[in-house]
Recover the amino acids of this structure.
C-alpha cells in the first residue's frame, strides 16, 4: 500500500484527490493545507489534517501543490528516506540544488516529478508519437492575462524536452516589453539534425494556442484552445504513481527539469533579465 500525503491548497486539488482515491493500493493518509474548503460534503473532510513535519515523515509519496510548505532541506531528507515527490508547481530551487536532488534520488531510486501540463494532452501526445526528425514545430500561445514569467515558461520548455530528447545546439530568444510589462517572448531551439522548435508567447486580445508541424513528408496544424488541464493532470498523476510502483523511468522528470533550468539560464543571459 502506497501512503500519500498532500501539501497545499486542497481546494485546487479536487480532481487529483478523486483520481488518487480510484487507484489500487493507494491511500491518502493526510494533508497539510494552505487552503480551507467551505463545502460541508467536500471529499477533503475525509482526509485528516496533520502537522507538516509528521506528514512528510510518515508517507511514501508527497503531492506538493504549495511549494512554500516544503523546504529544500526537507525535500533532501525525504528523498534520503526513500520518499517520492510530485511537484504540481515549480519550487524555487536552483540548478545546483536540483542536481544535488538528482544524486540523492538516483541513490534512493525514488521519483522526483515535475508537472508537465502538456505531456498528456491527447493531440500533442499524438504529435509526439508520430514526429519524424528533422522537423520544424511552431507553438503559438497567447491570451489577454498572460504573464511571461517562470511559471509560464517552464511548462513550454518541459514540453520541448518531451518532443526532442537532446539538448539544443543553438538557443535564440527575443523579448518585447511595454510599460515594464513583458508582452512577447520568442524562444527558438535549434538542434544538430536541423530540427527546430519555435515557441511564441504573447499578450493578446485574442486567445490562441496552436501547434504547427512540418517535416519532409507532412504538415499538420493543431488547435489547442480547448485544452483540458484537469484531464491532463489526472493522467499525469496516474503516470507518476505507476513510476513509483514499477520504478520504470524514475529519473526522467528530474533529468528533464534540470535540462530545462539550464535552458532557462541561457535564455536569461541572452535577454539580461531574471524570471
Amino acid at each position: 500500500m502506497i501512503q500519500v500525503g498532500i501539501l497545499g491548497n486542497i481546494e485546487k486539488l479536487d480532481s487529483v484527490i478523486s483520481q488518487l482515491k480510484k487507484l489500487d493500493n493507494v491511500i491518502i493518509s493526510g494533508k497539510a493545507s494552505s487552503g480551507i474548503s467551505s463545502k460541508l460534503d467536500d471529499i477533503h473532510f475525509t482526509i485528516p489534517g496533520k502537522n507538516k513535519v509528521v506528514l512528510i515523515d510518515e508517507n511514501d509519496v508527497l503531492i506538493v501543490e504549495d511549494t512554500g510548505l516544503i523546504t529544500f532541506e526537507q525535500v533532501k531528507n525525504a528523498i534520503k528516506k526513500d520518499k517520492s515527490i510530485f511537484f504540481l508547481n515549480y519550487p524555487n530551487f536552483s540548478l545546483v540544488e536540483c542536481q544535488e536532488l538528482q544524486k540523492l534520488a538516483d541513490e534512493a531510486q525514488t521519483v522526483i516529478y515535475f508537472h508537465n501540463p502538456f505531456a498528456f494532452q491527447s493531440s500533442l501526445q499524438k504529435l509526439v508519437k508520430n514526429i519524424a526528425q528533422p522537423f520544424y514545430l511552431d507553438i503559438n500561445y497567447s491570451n489577454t492575462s498572460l504573464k511571461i514569467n517562470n511559471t509560464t515558461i517552464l511548462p513550454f520548455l518541459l514540453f520541448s524536452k518531451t518532443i526532442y530528447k537532446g539538448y539544443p545546439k543553438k538557443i535564440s530568444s527575443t523579448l518585447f516589453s511595454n510599460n515594464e510589462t513583458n508582452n512577447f517572448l520568442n524562444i527558438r531551439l535549434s538542434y544538430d539534425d536541423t530540427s527546430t522548435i519555435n515557441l511564441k508567447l504573447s499578450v493578446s486580445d485574442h486567445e490562441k494556442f496552436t501547434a504547427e508541424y512540418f517535416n519532409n513528408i507532412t504538415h499538420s496544424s493543431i488547435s489547442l484552445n480547448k485544452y483540458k488541464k484537469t484531464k491532463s493532470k489526472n493522467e499525469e498523476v496516474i503516470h507518476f504513481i505507476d513510476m513509483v510502483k514499477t520504478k520504470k523511468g524514475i529519473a526522467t522528470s528530474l533529468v528533464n527539469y534540470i535540462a530545462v533550468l539550464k535552458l532557462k539560464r541561457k535564455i536569461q543571459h541572452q535577454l539580461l533579465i531574471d524570471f
Q: What stands out?
A: The CA atoms of residues 117 and 155 lie 6 Å apart. The first strand starts at residue 2 and ends at 8. The chain has a mean pLDDT of 90. Helices lie at 14-22, 52-58, 72-80, 95-108, 122-130, 150-163, 229-246, 252-271.
